[in-house]
Amino acid sequence: MITLGIIGVVAAMTLPALLADYRRLEGTVRIKKFVSTMQQAFNTATVNYGDAINWKFPTVQNDKEQINEFVDTYLFPYLTGIKQCAADAPECREFAKHLLQGQPVYIFSDGSCFGMTTGGAGETVANIHFMYDYNCMGKPNKYGYDIFQFVMQFSAGKAPKFRGGGTRLLNATNREELLELCKNPDSEYQKSDCATLIEYDGWEIKEDYPWY
């Protein structure tokens, strides 16, 4: 009985750590795959359509038709195993509301998904923001846990660059600051800070990552 009790205590102590390790590994693998997939798709689109700054970007933020047109032109032809789902479709309504309210959701065959919106476009610079959920229909559907924000930057004469977070911290060089920002659930930019930290760490979710 004493032996069984000890085994039970050890199991209770090690199981949470094992689950955290698994979540870190799963998150790292999924995020790396998403970043690589999107970067490669936009690079290929650049070959076919020329300098990305000359593409037809959505001119109205959160305009579903314009966003779909952008995706159909510059992304879908270069992505395999992906489908579009309207935000109000019964099968997508529950998880779509956690991404970008009212916007279409694009679902990969591995069960991950993303929503997107324009961040504005000018003559020399443009941004597209992405909200990526690496398990889509699974829980907890929370930023920093399984939902992460990314931004694709387009600059005249330069290849598109897929980055973690938003534009606010793209040039961050202080890991301690990024870690503290990611830890703060009340931060105005917490949705993006954690993805910036993960990119800073080489697209790895480290052991001190606060939400696993």
SSE order and pairing:
Blueprint: H1 2-49, H2 64-74, E1 82-85, H3 93-96, E2 105-108, E3 113-121, E4 125-133, E5 147-155, E6 161-164, H4 175-183, H5 190-200
Antiparallel strand pairs: 1-2, 2-3, 3-4, 4-5, 5-6
Task: Provide structural commentary.
Residues 17-211 form the DUF6613 domain. This protein has 212 residues and is α+β, with helices and mostly antiparallel strands. The protein has one domain. 39% of the residues lie in helices and 18% in strands. The protein has helices at 2-49, 64-74, 93-96, 175-183, 190-200; strands at 82-85, 105-108, 113-121, 125-133, 147-155, 161-164. Strands 1-2-3-4-5-6 form a six-stranded antiparallel beta sheet. Strand 5 and strand 6 form a beta hairpin. The longest helix is centred in the N-terminal third of the chain and has 48 residues, at 2-49. The mean pLDDT is 85.
